[in-house]
Design brief:
The chain is of the alpha/beta class. 47% of the residues lie in helices and 19% in strands. The longest helix is centred in the last third of the chain and has 22 residues.
Length: 139
């Protein structure tokens, strides 16, 4: 399992908090952190067929950042996405739903809800892999 985390270089302390929480709670999990749109876009294009083994966490610390991420929506199609939102306004939630994320949550200090969802997603993958290795069908 690989976590791909997009935190723009201008996200400041809010982005650092997310990075620290993910690093501490998911120590030992492969983590790729990207800090620019160009790097993130290149990463999406480079590994387009690898998405079933990845979870993408997009840190949209502002409405502008969320709007910028919308320009990459075609490249994110079919990927397992989690989006960190700047607020919970109707406009923001509507914009976020266009990505068809598995989960979205507002910026936080602890990200307990995010960690719970990530653990469930990763455990489901382990169960599927175990069943597949036992000769079962991967569903």
């Amino acid at each position: 399992m690989n976590l791909v985390l997009f935190i723009h270089q201008d996200a400041s302390k809010k982005g650092e908090t997310l990075k620290n929480v993910i690093g501490e709670k998911f120590y030992g999990t492969k983590l790729t952190i990207l800090h620019t749109f160009n790097a993130f876009k290149a990463r999406l294009k480079l590994f387009s067929n690898y998405s079933d083994k990845e979870i993408f966490i997009l840190f949209a610390d502002s409405k502008n950042r969320l709007n910028e991420l919308t320009s990459l929506i075609d490249l994110l199609e079919g990927k397992r996405l989690i989006i960190i939102l700047p607020d919970e306004s109707k406009a923001t939630l509507s914009r976020a739903s266009q990505f068809f994320p598995r989960f979205f949550t507002p910026v936080s200090e602890t990200y307990n809800d995010l960690c719970d969802v990530l653990n469930k997603m990763m455990n489901q993958d382990k169960i599927k892999l175990r069943n597949y290795n036992k000769g079962g069908n991967l569903q």
